[in-house]
TrEMBL record:
<dbReference type="InterPro" id="IPR050523">
    <property type="entry name" value="AKR_Detox_Biosynth"/>
</dbReference>
<dbReference type="InterPro" id="IPR036812">
    <property type="entry name" value="NAD(P)_OxRdtase_dom_sf"/>
</dbReference>
<protein>
    <submittedName>
        <fullName>Aldo/keto reductase</fullName>
    </submittedName>
</protein>
<dbReference type="InterPro" id="IPR023210">
    <property type="entry name" value="NADP_OxRdtase_dom"/>
</dbReference>
<dbReference type="Pfam" id="PF00248">
    <property type="entry name" value="Aldo_ket_red"/>
</dbReference>
<keyword id="KW-0560">Oxidoreductase</keyword>
<feature type="region of interest" description="Disordered">
    <location>
        <begin position="330"/>
        <end position="350"/>
    </location>
</feature>
<feature type="domain" description="NADP-dependent oxidoreductase">
    <location>
        <begin position="17"/>
        <end position="308"/>
    </location>
</feature>
Length: 350
């Protein structure tokens, strides 16, 4: 296992994060505690140290199980959890990113995790009712109190993360050090704005859903069942199947599993991208962890990028038009002027 830094901090995290969303059977598809323990031990034995959960996962069972598994080795792991989502059966203030919700959620997470601090606290999603200023100041209060070490954000647009961090840095508050977002071969739209923004500002990117709820493993091509209808977002079924078949074919040719191919592709994205692995048993997790040994050559990447390519979208397709480019650069545009700087500020889409 290799390690990387979490954004512009000195915090060392493993190249793969491990998601504890599957800890507990409260949601009818997770793993019982004994299997969660086997997965946790397999991840630790591989050298992993970055564990991800949330206050609402499996109605709190995820944090409770993780807290028990961390006993005696808490300092060996970087524990990330989240707040914002409303608790089941809670009142009108049980959810959201306001100060009251944040304070209650942090206290609940500390209690369930049986710890005195949270290493990384994510804002789980954008609360449209709460001003960004309130959220950032309330997060900084938790950092100053020593209950949270670093703050991060999930499921926000790039422009609003930029606004939040600019505000935090201007006022001396704790800025977001990382972003957690959905990124896989079926969902590449973060490459339009979020990934260039993260690379330009040195934010770590934790990529959730790397296997697209199992669609990239090829299991559904074989007629197996699962959670494939989760997080569809208007997906193109024919396109999804073509991508999955390409992943499966490449895996068969090279002697890898399809999951390893899909996860290894994530590691080739520009910037500091950390795949978030989720599994329901230790065998699945070990297979996913082996993606660290997979090196995709130029031909493999060309095939994967080509089949999963998305349109750049405005304004990138407009700016990339030859006529527009010439009107901007004259005779000294791309091709004649070689830009050897990193790709920050430009979209990564193929």
């Amino acid at each position: 296992m290799r390690y990387t830094l979490f954004g512009r901090t000195g915090l060392r995290v493993s190249e793969f994060a491990f998601g504890a969303m599957t800890f507990g059977t409260d949601w009818n598809w997770g793993a019982p505690e004994d299997e969660a323990a086997r997965m946790f031990d397999a991840y630790a034995e591989a050298g992993g140290n970055f564990i991800d959960t949330a206050d609402v996962y499996t109605d709190g069972s995820s944090e409770r199980i993780l807290g028990r598994l961390l006993k005696g080795r808490r300092d060996d792991f970087v524990v990330a959890t989240k707040f914002t989502c409303a608790a089941a059966g809670g009142g009108p203030n049980s959810g959201g990113s306001h100060r009251t919700s944040l304070a209650a959620s942090v206290e609940g997470s500390l209690r369930r995790l049986e710890t005195d601090h949270i290493d990384v606290l994510y804002v789980h999603a954008r609360d449209l009712f709460t001003p960004v200023e309130e959220t950032m100041r309330a997060l900084d209060d938790q950092v100053r109190a020593g209950k949270v070490h670093y703050v991060a954000v999930s499921n926000w647009p790039a422009w609003e993360i930029a606004h939040a961090n600019t505000l935090a840095e201007l006022r001396g508050w704790s800025p977001f050090a990382g972003i957690q977002l959905r990124l896989n071969l079926l969902e590449r739209t973060p490459e339009r704005e979020l990934l260039p923004f993260a690379e330009a500002t040195d934010l770590a990117v934790v990529a959730w859903g790397p296997l697209a709820e199992g669609r990239l493993t090829g299991k559904y091509l074989r007629g197996e069942s699962g959670r494939r209808d989760t997080f569809r977002f208007g997906a193109d079924h024919a396109r999804d199947e073509e991508i999955a078949r390409t992943v499966v074919a490449l895996a068969h040719e090279r002697g890898w599993s399809p999951a390893q191919v899909a996860i290894a592709w994530l590691a080739t994205r520009p910037g500091n991208v950390i795949p978030l692995l989720g599994a329901r048993n230790a065998g699945q997790l070990r297979d996913n962890l082996a993606a660290g040994d997979v090196e995709l050559d130029a031909e493999a990447l060309r095939r994967l990028d080509a089949v999963s390519a998305i349109a750049p979208g405005y304004p990138y397709d407009f700016l990339g038009d030859p006529t527009v480019a010439r009107s901007i650069h004259g005779d000294y545009g791309p091709g004649r002027v070689v830009d050897r700087r990193r790709s920050a500020g430009r979209p990564f889409v193929s």
